[in-house]
């Protein structure tokens, strides 16, 4: 059982996942600090209350901590924006061809869709030249 656990933990994906969780936790605390110590005072200046976490209202004796909810919402929006930007960057890298496949000799394997589109382009150019020559 120890050997199986050692094989499991030594896989690259498990280590990558662990690093991702640690970095995510650190990023979360950074975003929370940004919200609490920078954004809340800034928002508080406009609404007349410095600490948003103190904002609350009562209905029939129940306390609703609206300020804590606003803090959580701001944290969520910041994190989702950063995730969106990372995904957007990764998609751009994929479109730019950074994920090209290579054969055993190190030569790039052409994408079949790209080859097909290039053939269509070449045929259209050939057809356009022939139409131009036939007019004159």
SSE arrangement:
Elements: H1 2-9, H2 12-47, E1 57-59, E2 62-64, H3 66-95, E3 101-102, E4 108-109, H4 112-135
Antiparallel strand pairs: 1-2, 3-4
Structure explained in plain terms:
The structure is a single chain. With 136 residues, the protein is mainly α. It is 72% helix and 7% strand. It contains four helices and four strands, in the order H-H-E-E-H-E-E-H. Strands 1-2 form a two-stranded antiparallel sheet. The protein has a two-stranded antiparallel sheet with strand order 3-4. The longest helix is centred in the first third of the chain and has 36 residues, at 12-47. The radius of gyration is 28 Å and the shape is flat. The relative contact order is 0.05.
Give the structure's gist in a few sentences:
By secondary structure, the protein is mainly alpha-helical.
Strand content: 5-15%
Question: What share of the residues lie within helices?
Answer: over 70%
Can you count the helices?
4
Name the helix and strand elements from N-terminus to C-terminus, one letter apiece.
Answer: HHEEHEEH
Structural class: mainly alpha
Q: What is the β-strand count? A: 4
Transmembrane segments: 12-39, 59-87
Keywords: Cell membrane, Ion channel, Ion transport, Membrane, Transmembrane, Transmembrane helix, Transport
Protein name: Large-conductance mechanosensitive channel
Function: Channel that opens in response to stretch forces in the membrane lipid bilayer. May participate in the regulation of osmotic pressure changes within the cell.
List the defining traits of the structure above.
two-stranded antiparallel ribbon; 136 residues; mainly alpha; Large-conductance mechanosensitive channel; 72% helix; cell membrane; 4 helices
């Amino acid at each position: 059982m120890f050997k199986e656990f050692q094989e499991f933990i030594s896989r690259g994906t498990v280590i990558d996942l662990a690093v991702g969780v640690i970095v995510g936790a650190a990023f979360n605390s950074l975003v929370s600090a940004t919200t609490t110590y920078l954004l809340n005072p800034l928002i508080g200046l406009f609404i007349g209350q410095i600490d948003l976490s103190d904002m609350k209202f009562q209905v029939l004796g129940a306390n609703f901590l609206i300020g804590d909810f606003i803090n959580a919402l701001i944290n969520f929006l910041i994190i989702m924006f950063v995730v969106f930007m990372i995904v957007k960057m990764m998609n751009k890298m994929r479109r730019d061809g950074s994920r090209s496949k290579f054969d055993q000799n190190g030569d790039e394997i052409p994408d079949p869709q790209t080859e097909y589109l290039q053939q269509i382009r070449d045929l259209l150019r050939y057809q356009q030249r022939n139409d131009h020559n036939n007019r004159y």
